[in-house]
Amino acid sequence: MLGAIIGDIVGSRFEFHNHRSKDFDFFAPGCFVTDDSIMTLAVAESLLSCQGDWDKLARETIRHMQALGRKYPNCGFGGMFYQWVFSPDPKPYNSFGNGAAMRVSPCGFVARTEKEAKRLSREVTAVTHNHPEGLKGAEATTIAVFMARQGATIKEIRQRMVRDYYELDFTLDSIRAHYRFNESCQRTVPQAIESFLESVSFEDAIRNAISIGGDSDTLAAITGAISQAYYGIPDPLREKALSFLDSRLLDIFFACENTVN
Fold first, then answer.
1. Does residue 230 lie within any of the structural domains?
2. Three-state SS at 97
3. By the 8 A CB rule, do 7 and 223 touch?
4. pLDDT of the chain, 261 residues: tens digit per residue
């Protein structure tokens, strides 16, 4: 969970002003918390409130995402999701946007089995992003987090991603010059996974994600989630990231941390 939040914060100032290099100040003036972090925390709350009864998860996800989202209406929601957050009768809207993947990392940390990881991913995603590509992007992210948490190697994670989800027939160097902003899972999740796969540390993975441009905060949030599960997070980065959260978000984070982080 915190890995996604760090990626979001670091990437926030680059979303519409891409920086195609790994050389930049990690936390700097202009960084802020976006909807990626807020919805990740809402998913974490949803998982915690179920207490293992996953039959309630879709309902709890709707409840928590709407409740928290309404407190942060200007945090960067897309148009359709904004309408969903404030709808009295929220329904899925066949989205394949990358919001499906940026918020799902708590599922990969909570799941006890791969089967359960897939179920949790689907339950928290299908309430909005019920398009097959949205569901796939969320599941790929969840499984990568789950595998990393279970001790899989980078090679094993790559093989699994290629076998079941995305071709990954590119390198970061090969796309850096021409990759552009894209809000779909299809054009965000593979690039985020590759940013992790080419990394040597948590911080390096985030720098990889930022360096290719695109939807920087969401790319880095997805990369950060997988990287946390694989590398852990250095204490100085943890403390700095938490300083960006207000008291409400901190309360949620600490309430959920031991269960979903």
1. yes
2. strand
3. yes
4. 999 999 999 999 999 999 999 999 999 999 999 999 999 999 999 999 999 999 999 999 999 999 999 999 999 999 999 999 999 999 999 999 999 999 999 999 999 999 999 999 999 999 999 999 999 999 999 999 999 999 999 999 999 999 999 999 999 999 999 999 999 999 999 999 999 999 999 999 999 999 999 999 999 999 999 999 999 999 999 999 999 999 999 999 999 998 877
Give the HSE-up count for residue 204: Cα atoms under 13 Å, Cβ half-sphere: 10
In a domain, 135, yes or no: yes
The type of residue at 198 is E
Establish if 22 belongs to a structural domain: no
Q: Measure the CA–CA gap between 6 and 245, rounded to whole angstroms.
A: 11
Instruction: Round to whole Å and give the CA distance between 5 and 55.
Output: 27
In CATH, what number is assigned to the domain containing residue 163? Answer: 1.10.4080.10
Q: Indicate the number of domains in the chain.
A: 1
Q: State phi, psi for 57 to the nearest 5 degrees.
A: -65, -45
Whose CA is closest to 178, among 166, 165, 191? 191
Rounded-to-integer distance, Cα 85 and Cα 78, Å: 10
Give residue 196's domain range.
2-12+31-260
- pTM higher than 0.90, yes or no? yes
- Tell me phi and psi for residue 153, to 5 degrees: -80, 165
Taking residue 171's Cβ as centre, other Cβ atoms within 10 Å add up to 11
